[in-house]
């Protein structure tokens, strides 16, 4: 029997991993395999989900809507050959992916016979939507979604939330859920027989729009110096995430930056090793060399005055 597939899409930092984590930890009793696609070679998302489930597979160094399509298909086939087979497959697209390209790949009749795309779940950061809504990539992600989940609704202004819901309903999105409330698993499955409209993928000149740096350091960092660097870079970094340790031995921390909101929280216990950090920005305003210099300046002994 064909295994249902949920494709989760949404802009950088929208809440895709958070949603998948909740799904993996839900008490539905389903055997779920998750395939996650991070931007870059340091696979933070897979590490974040690792604690939640076996069967989390990270696809890195590219984007599954373009350069990694072949990898996605190979990974799907290998997941499907597992015994016992998963009962649900969740694919997290990277935050820079256009879901239309992935949907086209999943329509392959050989794949479809074994794994049928059930629903494209689109996640929109409600607190960021009014700023982001004219972005063609954001629009493509909304257009390609069958159902919508609104994240960070508690952080958004009520009038912005109302405007967002109105805009989504104009676009024909009937199923819009608040991600800060429990979303029942059944709500993620489309009514039987519902046809998905074919959506054209964005032209692929977009791949050079985003750039990122990956940075690693063996040992703890000075917290205050790190915060200063992040404050300097704020405004040019769209998304940051990583695992870090700081002087004083408070343990490993998970760093999350979305737009101008940064947070540090205790990292999942099974994340070991060096400090590792990924920062992503738009090529027009994010200068990787300067960002790397600022980060390298954090290494003990190399601080410049
Ligand atoms: N308050 C609040 N925070 C959220 C919600 N959803 C996600 N977050 C936070 O937003 C940040 C990014 O969430 P992720 O789930 O990693 O976002 P993502 O879409 O997977 O990010 P990328 O894959 O890097 O594009 C994290 O700090 C989350 O804790 C939400 O509904 N409410």
In short:
This is GTPase, G3E family. The chain has helices at 16-25, 44-50, 69-80, 99-106, 109-114, 129-132, 136-143, 158-170, 223-233, 288-296, and strands spanning 3-10, 32-37, 56-59, 88-92, 115-125, 147-151, 176-178, 210-217, 239-244, 253-258, 261-266, 275-282.
Shape: globular
| The CATH homology group name of the largest domain | P-loop containing nucleotide triphosphate hydrolases
Q: Per CATH, which architecture of the largest domain?
A: 3-Layer(aba) Sandwich
Radius of gyration from the alpha-carbon trace, in angstroms: 19 Å
Please give the count of helices. Answer: 10
Helix content: 25-40%
* Biggest sheet, spatial arrangement of strands: 3-2-4-1-5-6-7
Q: Regions with pLDDT < 50 over 5+ consecutive residues?
A: none
Kindly report how far apart the N and C termini lie. Answer: 64 Å
Q: What is the count of distinct domains?
A: 2
**Heteromolecules bound:** guanosine-5'-triphosphate
Mean pLDDT: 86
Annotate the secondary structure layout.
Layout: E1 3-10, H1 16-25, E2 32-37, H2 44-50, E3 56-59, H3 69-80, E4 88-92, H4 99-106, H5 109-114, E5 115-125, H6 129-132, H7 136-143, E6 147-151, H8 158-170, E7 176-178, E8 210-217, H9 223-233, E9 239-244, E10 253-258, E11 261-266, E12 275-282, H10 288-296
Parallel strand pairs: 1-4, 1-5, 2-3, 2-4, 5-6, 6-7
Antiparallel strand pairs: 8-12, 9-10, 9-12, 10-11
Give a structural overview.
The chain is α/β, with parallel strands linked by helices and 305 residues long. The protein folds into 2 domains: 3-205, P-loop containing nucleotide triphosphate hydrolases (Rossmann fold, 3-Layer(aba) Sandwich), CATH 3.40.50; 209-296, Hypothetical Protein Yjia, Chain: A,domain 2, CATH 3.30.1220. 29% of the residues lie in helices and 25% in strands. The protein is built from 10 helices and 12 strands. The strands form 2 sheets. Strands 3-2-4-1-5-6-7 form a 7-stranded parallel sheet, sandwiched between helices. A 5-stranded antiparallel sheet has the order 8-12-9-10-11, covered by helices on one side. A hairpin with a 2-residue loop joins β10 (253-258) and β11. It is globular. The termini are far apart. The relative contact order is 0.15. Guanosine-5'-triphosphate is lined by residues 10, 12-18, 45, 95, 151-152, 155, 179-180, 239, 241, 256, 258, 263.
């Amino acid at each position: 029997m064909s295994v249902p597939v949920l494709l989760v899409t949404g802009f950088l930092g929208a809440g895709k991993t958070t949603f998948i984590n909740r799904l993996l930890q839900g008490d539905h009793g389903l055997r779920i395999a998750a395939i996650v696609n991070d931007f870059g070679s340091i696979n933070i998302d897979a590490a974040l989900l690792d604690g939640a489930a076996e069967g989390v597979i990270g696809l890195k160094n590219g984007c599954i809507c373009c350069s990694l399509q072949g990898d996605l298909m190979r990974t799907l086939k290998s997941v499907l050959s597992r015994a016992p087979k998963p009962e649900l497959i969740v694919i997290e697209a990277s935050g820079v992916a256009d879901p239309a390209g992935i949907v086209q790949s999943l329509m392959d009749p050989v794949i479809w016979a074994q794994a049928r795309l059930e629903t494209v779940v689109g996640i929109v950061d409600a607190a960021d939507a009014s700023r982001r809504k004219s972005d063609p990539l954001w629009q493509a992600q909304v257009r390609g979604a069958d159902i919508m989940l609104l994240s960070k609704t508690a952080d958004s202004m009520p009038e912005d939330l109302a405007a967002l819901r109105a805009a989504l309903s104009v676009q024909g999105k009937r199923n819009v859920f608040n991600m800060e409330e429990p979303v029942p698993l059944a709500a993620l499955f489309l009514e039987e027989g519902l046809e998905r409209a074919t959506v054209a993928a964005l032209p692929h000149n977009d791949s050079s729009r985003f750039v990122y740096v990956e940075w690693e350091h063996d040992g703890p960092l000075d917290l205050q110096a790190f915060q200063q660097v992040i404050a300097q870079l704020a405004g040019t970094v769209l998304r940051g995430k990583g695992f870090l340790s700081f002087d004083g031995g408070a343990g490993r921390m998970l760093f999350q930056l979305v737009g101008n909101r940064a947070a540090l929280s205790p990292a999942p216990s099974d994340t070991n090793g060096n400090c590792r950090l990924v920062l992503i920005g738009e090529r027009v305003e994010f200068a990787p060399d300067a960002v790397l210099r600022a980060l390298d300046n954090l290494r003990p002994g190399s601080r410049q005055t």
